[in-house]
Each structure stands twice: as structure tokens, then as C-alpha cells.
Design brief:
Blueprint lengths: L1 E4 L6 H11 L3 E4 L22 H4 L9 E4 L2 E4 L1 H12 L8 H30 L6 H28 L9 H13 L10 H11 L2 H12 L3
Parallel strand pairs: 1-2
Antiparallel strand pairs: 1-3, 3-4
Helix pairs in contact: 1-3, 1-6, 1-8, 4-5, 4-6, 5-7
The protein binds glutathione.
Length: 219
């Protein structure tokens, strides 16, 4: 059985969503981000990304991490591609070309979109969005997102899904990246094909189930 290390309030959410879609059983080892704790090294601190026992599994000291027997894998999007391929079925790539396209979109999402979308999300989460510095930061990150979001919007307008004519792991991977940009009101709505696809993705029972578990975790 697979083991997932991480918390729902982390990029592990994308793995938990996929596992819910697949109805795949897994073991869950909660590992909280060290920076969210007042003293991650305290003797009574919960298991966290700085705990020696976790760093032994994940030298990068970041969640999520997957273990499958003695096989250890980090990087949330690579983990999702692995899980989907292991499960097979409609969420997985059907052939080498679909596999390559799923990797292409995962890399594009992570390199061209995620950093900027996350910066916007943190400006809101950390209460800076309405300060002059926060507004300037959001404007800059929004400008950087404009080109990749146009690319994604055109792709979804043409194709409806990321890869193949169906919902796959590639949709989960990209939707979880775009979710960070939803923190800025009205931003995603400027891209109607992305907005429509996002609501369909987030309307799925597996997303809702993952989200309810995330909300149940302490903020
Ligand atoms: N690219 C990595 C990023 C992993 C990452 O930065 N995880 C965060 C939580 S979402 C973390 O564990 N941070 C702990 C830290 O920076 O100390 C992935 O997608 O898995």
C-alpha cells in the first residue's frame, strides 16, 4: 500500500484528490510544514518537515513524499503521475504521447504558473493584499501570469481538458496550481475557459471530499 507523508494544507492536497478519485487506499503519515510551528525542534513538536525522521526520508525537507514499498518519491506532480500510471484506467495516460503531454503540462504549470500564483495566494493569506506593497506585488505577479494563462485558456477552449477528451490526472495537477490564483478575486474569471473548467474540476465529489478534509485540519 502507498504511504503519503504530508498534510491536507500542503501540496499533498493534489495527491489526496487523485487518491480520492481513484478510490485507492493508502496510509497517511501527517507531516506539517516546520515553518508553521512556533518551535519545530521542540521535543513535543508534531512530526514536521524539519524532524530528523522526516529529513531521513526526504532530504529536501518538504512535503509531500510518497513511499511504495522501498521506493521513495517526492515532487507532488511526479507523485501524481506515478500514482495514476500505477492505477491505470481513464485518469492515467493511455499511451506514450499522452504520458509526454501530461509531463509537459505538469512542467509548464510548475515553471510558468505555480510560483506566481502562490505569491498571489500568500499575499492574501498573510494579510498583505490590501497594503500598497501587497497590491504592487499582486499586480506584478498577475502581469507575469497573463501569458501562461492565455496559453492555458486557449488550450482549454479548444480541448476542454488538459490531455485527451476526458478528465485525467493532468487536470488535477493543473487545477491545483490554478487554485492558488483564485485567491485574487476576478483574476481567473478573465479567462473564461479556465474558469469554466475549474468549476467543473472543483465540482467533482473527490475534490469536495479532499477539500472538506483540508478545512477540517487546523489552519
Ligand atoms: N515542488 C515541490 C514543493 C514542495 C514544497 O515546497 N512543499 C512545502 C509545503 S506545500 C513544504 O513542505 N515546505 C516546507 C518548508 O519549506 O520548510 C512539490 O511540488 O512537491
Amino acid at each position: 500500500m502507498l504511504t503519503i507523508y504530508g498534510v491536507y494544507r500542503s501540496r499533498a492536497s493534489r495527491n489526496f484528490w487523485l487518491l480520492e478519485e481513484l478510490n485507492m487506499e493508502f496510509d497517511h503519515v501527517p507531516v506539517i510544514q516546520g515553518y508553521r510551528l512556533p518551535d519545530p525542534e521542540a521535543a513535543d513538536a508534531p512530526f514536521n518537515t524539519l524532524s530528523p525522521g522526516f529529513v531521513a526520508i526526504s532530504p529536501a525537507g518538504a512535503v509531500p513524499v510518497l513511499k511504495d514499498g522501498d521506493f521513495v518519491l517526492s515532487e507532488s506532480l511526479a507523485m501524481n503521475l506515478y500514482i495514476a500510471r500505477k492505477a491505470g484506467g481513464p485518469l492515467a495516460p493511455a499511451d506514450a504521447r499522452e504520458n509526454a503531454l501530461m509531463e509537459q503540462w505538469a512542467l509548464y504549470g510548475m515553471t510558468a504558473i505555480e510560483t506566481h500564483a502562490l505569491a498571489i495566494m500568500y499575499a492574501h493569506a498573510e494579510g498583505r493584499a490590501k497594503t500598497p506593497a501587497g497590491e504592487a506585488e499582486i499586480a506584478m505577479e498577475t502581469a507575469r501570469l497573463r501569458r501562461p494563462l492565455k496559453v492555458l485558456n486557449a488550450h482549454l477552449r479548444e480541448n476542454g481538458h488538459m490531455v485527451g477528451d476526458r478528465f485525467t490526472v493532468a487536470d488535477i495537477n493543473m487545477a491545483e496550481i490554478i487554485r492558488y490564483a483564485q485567491a485574487e478575486p476576478g483574476l481567473v474569471d478573465q479567462f473564461p475557459a479556465i474558469a469554466g473548467w475549474m468549476s467543473a474540476c472543483q465540482d467533482r465529489p473527490a475534490f469536495k471530499s479532499m477539500w472538506a478534509k483540508r478545512l477540517a485540519e487546523p489552519a
